Amino acid sequence: MKNGAAAVSVLQPMFLKPTYTELYRHFKAIADSVPETPILLYNNPGRVGYTLAAQLVDELAHTVPNIVGMKDTSGDITLTSEFIRRTRDIGFKVFGGKDTLLYASMCHGAVGGVCTAANFMPELITDVYNKFAAGDLQGSLEAQFKLNPVRLSMDAASFPVAAKDMAALRGRDVGVPYLPSLPTPEGAARQGFIRTMREAGLL
């Protein structure tokens, strides 16, 4: 693309509740507008209020040449598995989008993950991936179990503020969130960050 993007990730429309046909046409129109650019679908029902159906992803993957993969943040490992099963014949790349399910997603055939926690604890995320890729499944699972308490502690605070808070706790100068978001105040949520990060060896 003229601005240097190697690919485009496209989230399903917010606020609307499109039909199957409307969603298909939406993603196809975007892909058709940049035919030489790889497109990754981004399924995030927690943010938009509905999920992409496995059949829709199947059809888009098989009929729109530059839709080549997706990030699935549904947290539904059966759905993630269906995206993979239905598209494995064409090399469609599925990335797990839930940090806590990175290991599980790769067990079902995901090629990796797009993980929030990689912004502030990349060593734990890459440990899960590298051990899995090396065939050390038990080690990968244990690495997953090491990072999960840290990631789950984020749920007690605002998103994505918690990631910025944790990066700051690790000494990174990330500034303050844009309004209306506010830094996590002193209290149970922030203490949960500190406790789980210390237990994971991050502080």
Give your account of this protein's structure.
This protein is of the alpha/beta class. Helices cover 47% and strands 10% of the residues. The protein contains nine helices and five strands; from the N terminus they run βαβααβαβαβαααα. The protein has a five-stranded parallel β-sheet with strand order 1-2-3-4-5. Strand 4, helix 5 and strand 5 form a beta-alpha-beta unit. It is globular, with a radius of gyration of 18 Å. The termini are far apart. The mean pLDDT is 95.
Structural class: alpha/beta
What's the rounded overall pLDDT mean? 95
* β-strand amount: 5-15%
- Radius of gyration, whole Å: 18 Å
Strand order of the largest sheet: 1-2-3-4-5
Low-pLDDT windows of residues? none
**How many β strands by DSSP?**
5
Q: What is the share of helical residues?
A: 40-55%
Shape: globular
Helix/strand order, N-terminal first = EHEHHEHEHEHHHH
Largest sheet: number of strands, sense, barrel closure: 5 strands, parallel
End-to-end separation:
40 Å
Number of helices: 9
